[in-house]
Design a protein that fits this description.
Strand order of the largest sheet: 9-8-10-11-7-12-13
Strand content: 15-25%
Radius of gyration: 23 Å
Family: Belongs to the GSP E family.
CATH topology of the largest domain: Rossmann fold
GO molecular function: ATP binding; ATP hydrolysis activity
Order of helices and strands: HEEEHHEEEHEHEEHEHEHHEEHHHHH
InterPro entries: AAA+_ATPase, P-loop_NTPase, PilT/PilU, T2SS/T4SS_dom, T4SS_GSP_E_ATPase
Number of helices: 14
Distance between the termini: 83 Å
Structural class: alpha/beta
Number of domains: 2
Pfam family, one: T2SSE
Protein name: Twitching mobility protein
């Protein structure tokens, strides 16, 4: 299988449906794409009804393109990440992985257009993030929840407003930012540095005002990131967590019990914003983002220092701090339901606390004059 054939198949997969986000190549299945959150097969001529192990392995080798580091990583660790460009058509973030001694591939399509906060309809706190001078900002969520896109929008906002040096450490580079007011140096793991920790250590000598770290994967990267934030840099990074409050516990979990108090003090002093996001099915097709946002105020800093307690949980502080731009997933989903962007079923399926969302949905229905229950003809027993 030659590169021209690979490019032809990828082009056909992209053009098969509208709003294709992922291409999936798995043994025993046809070529598949994810469109609007659903995985669907792609018809090709000649047809590939069930891909063989040989076909997916050849496809993988073409995408690796003889890169020794990627080949060694794939053989040693069982998976590798890379980027692939379809000239004039699209760029992809590629993950090749071994499963039951066969190779599977997932290609995530990367946007060629740099998104803006306005285009994505992001909440007001994202504009405030772009104005921060130092500290740490975390954007968290599961894989495929749009973290990189939201971060690209924040960096674009900085690019429009700040004459600053911005260094990014990515795996791989997803959005290629042009130089506007800011000066961008975008470094890719494998080609420009070997680990996030070493890349970050080097970045501190490169005179940046803003440092983007693709992902804080380990203790060493977090430690150096905190040091960078403490010395006047603005550090922006991602984590994999289910809500904003859990991000603190995730970071603490990377350190020993003996270090916990010191790390809590450092986090309380450096964290500016934590945003967690989920993508929900939108009414009429497509997807819409829901946000869980924590900002830095006295109550949040105190809770980071001393841990959560009754009446002082991150969730309760978020609910009481809406004027600071904070919001919980549940409150944001109720807003999305009120605007008619998601259904009641979607809100209840993706929320954190069903009781709170259920009451919120009922209040919205009452305002609209809709029934809040399907129980009818209730009568009081007078006997």
């Amino acid at each position: 299988m030659r590169k021209q054939e690979i490019d032809f198949i990828l082009t056909r997969m992209l053009d098969a449906y509208s709003s294709v986000s992922d291409l999936n190549i798995t043994v025993g299945k046809p070529f598949q794409v994810e469109s609007a959150g659903q995985l669907v097969g792609v018809d090709l001529d000649p047809p590939f009804e069930e891909l063989t192990p040989f076909q997916t392995e050849i496809f993988s080798l073409n995408l690796v393109n003889g890169d020794r580091r990627l080949t060694e990583t794939l053989l040693k660790e069982g998976s590798c990440d890379s980027a692939y460009a379809l000239p004039g058509k699209a760029r992809f973030r590629v993950n090749i992985f071994s499963q039951r001694s066969k190779y599977s591939i997932v290609l995530r399509q990367l946007s060629t257009k740099i998104p803006s906060c306005k285009d994505l309809n992001l909440p007001e706190p994202f504009y405030k993030m772009a104005q921060e001078k130092n500290g740490i900002i975390f954007v968290t969520g599961s894989t495929g929840s749009g973290k990189s896109t939201s971060l690209a929008a924040v960096l674009n906002e900085m690019n429009e407003t700040k004459a600053a040096h911005i260094v990014t450490l990515e795996d791989p580079v997803e959005f290629s930012h042009p130089h506007k007011k800011a000066t961008f140096n975008q470094r890719e793991m494998g080609n420009d540095f070997d680990t996030f920790a070493s890349g970050l250590r080097a970045a501190l000598r490169q005179g940046p005002k803003v440092i983007l770290i693709g992902e804080m994967r380990d203790r060493e990267t977090v430690d150096i990131g905190l040091s960078a934030a403490e010395t006047g840099h603005l550090v922006v990074s991602t984590l994999h967590t289910v809500d904003a409050g859990q991000s603190i516990d995730r970071i603490l979990g990377m350190f020993s019990i003996e270090e916990e108090k010191q790390i809590r003090i450092r986090l309380a002093g450096t964290i500016r914003w934590i945003v967690c996001q989920r993508l929900l099915p939108k009414v009429g097709g497509g997807r819409v983002a829901a946000f869980d946002i924590i900002g830095s105020n006295m109550r949040i800093r105190d809770t980071i220092l001393n841990g959560e307690s009754e009446g002082k949980t991150y969730y309760e502080i978020q609910q009481a701090s809406k004027s600071f731009g904070m919001v919980t997933f549940d409150d944001h989903m109720i807003e999305l339901y009120e605007k008619g962007l998601i259904t009641e079923e979607t809100a209840l399926a993706y929320c954190s606390r069903k009781g709170i969302v259920g009451r919120g949905v009922d209040m919205v229905k009452s305002k609209r004059g809709e029934a809040t229950t399907d129980i009818e003809n209730l009568e009081m027993d007078m006997s």
